[in-house]
Amino acid sequence: MATNPRVWQMLDELVRSSRMQAFHARRNEQLANEESDVLADQVAELALVVRSLMQYLDEKGQVDTTRFMEIMTALDASDGVVDGKLNPKRPAAKRIHLPKKR
Predict the structure, then answer these.
(1) Which residue has the higher pLDDT, 2 or 6?
(2) What's this model's pTM, rounded to 2 decimal places?
(3) Number of other residues whose CB lies within 10 A of the CB of residue 67
(4) Three-state SS at 89
């Protein structure tokens, strides 16, 4: 008994489809890894800028660490979640109202 040609065609289509899905999955993983590397570089650059700025201000005697922490805490809370970061999906107000400087 001969196998129906349609069965072979269906199998070929499944194999082709599986190969394409595997290719796209590998490509998506590669793109995600590249994007992750770019983000890690941006975070490292921002960390350098912030640390440089803080050290510069500290050397000038212009850092009030208590006030700095007040501002950072208020900014953290401004996106609705106190978690040590600003959530880009819930942007903070452009200008927050802080308690008066002591």
Answers:
(1) 6
(2) 0.59
(3) 13
(4) coil
